[in-house]
Amino acid sequence: MGLNDSSPGAMRNGRGLSDQWAETVVVRPRTTERHITVHKRLVLGFALSILTLIIVTALAVVLSVRFEDCGSRDVATGESGSRGSTKLNGSKGERGDEEGVQPWRNLRLPGTLRPRHYDLRIAVYMDNFTFSGEVSIELECINATRFIVLHSDRLEVDRVSVTAEGGANGRPANRPGGGAMRIHRHFPHPTTQMHVVVLHRELKPLRVYRLNVSFEAAIEDELLGFFRSSYTLHREKRFLALTQFSPIHARKAFPCFDEPVYKATFSVALRHDARYAALSNMPEERRVLEEDASVTTRFSRTPRMSTYYLAWAVCNFTFRETTSDTGVTVSERTTLGAL
């Protein structure tokens, strides 16, 4: 039979061969390969997105820390557009803690306020070695601020109030608005040993204000601040309480501007048990017997000086006095029986 034979039998055999060849061909699942490729791309894209998010978050944290450090350095170095009559550790004009300005985070006081006089009243309880006090500080505003920042270490601050007194150097205020200032909040910042008073409105330059703070604390035994000591007399242990404020420990005894540059005058009154005597830098002015049988000893006003020069003691020492050729009275204090 020839090649051109087109009989039905040959055609049937041809179809059979074609069908057999088709059955031997393996068809690969192209759809499955495409799905695998798409899944790999999705996983890769998701991983890149997570990596990008981590990098962006890290950069944001670094930039925020750098920004806060720059702000703190600006406040510390006193880069300020406003100027007062006197500059102490020059300070930036604060706009509010809600805007990120936090001068209490610096190691130095901001310099927007200057103390002029402290009226200090301390009640000493030798039976349980505690004390309470009230301090009234006359402040002169140097640069406008809503913050009163001063030192306080281990003191429990109770009540705080601020009043407007008038103009600088005791002159009356040129504008109305004296009286009590509204306090937004006050809080301690132990890291820098400061206490912060946040006001609703700014203190104005060249005006005088009065800050009143009540507080209490323990009389510690670490020989710093206002601490206790003891001695033995006739086999009896006796105690005394005294101060050591140098160089920066006055803040342990009362809220104050505890840096040498802030000089002021001090009026001290000590309330104590009648069995004890009270001493301070200045001569005793008067002694008042209170209703509870305790005694309040008031002392003369000190010269203008730094906080670390202030000193007082509550003890039952005896003393001996003499007068020099130039008329200066010299007093020596010691334990009973030592003279």
From TrEMBL:
Span of domain Aminopeptidase N-like N-terminal: 115-309
Keyword DNA damage among record annotations: no
Positions of transmembrane segments: 42-63
Sequence segments annotated as region (Disordered): 74-102
Entry-linked InterPro entries: Aminopeptidase_N-like_N, Aminopeptidase_N-like_N_sf, Peptidase_M1, Peptidase_M1_aminopeptidases
GO MF terms held by the record: metalloaminopeptidase activity; peptide binding; zinc ion binding
Keyword Membrane: yes
UniProt-listed GO biological process terms: peptide catabolic process; proteolysis
GO CC, any one term: cytoplasm
Bias (Polar residues): 79-89
Keywords, alphabetical: Membrane, Transmembrane, Transmembrane helix
Protein name as catalogued: Aminopeptidase N-like N-terminal domain-containing protein
